[in-house]
Write a structure and sequence with these properties.
The chain is of the alpha+beta class. Helix content is 48%, strand content 29%. The chain has one domain.
Length: 84
């Protein structure tokens, strides 16, 4: 993300209801420094994509955590061999 495009900070995100046809979810979004809450109608399919994206981000975070743990273990074992 470029530095000139700072994301808007959300302070609340709520699922309010389904649309009358059941194809959309009505969400409300409150942003920092705004007094009003905005409501949006979002297609249900978008939430499936969001879930996939969140799982991918979590997997990436877990992979980095595992990689860091392995690097720490290797460094610890190397230090023990040098000392011992």
């Amino acid at each position: 993300m470029s530095e000139d495009k700072i994301p808007i900070s959300a302070t609340a995100l709520r699922a309010e209801d389904y649309s009358s046809d059941g194809k959309n979810i009505i969400i409300s979004l409150t942003i920092k420094y705004a007094r009003t809450e905005r409501k949006y109608s979002v297609p249900v399919e978008c939430f499936y994509d969001l879930i996939v994206d969140l799982q991918r981000l979590n997997a990436t975070k877990d992979a980095k955590s595992i990689e860091s743990s392995i690097q720490l273990e290797v460094a610890s074992n190397s230090a023990e061999k040098i000392e011992g």
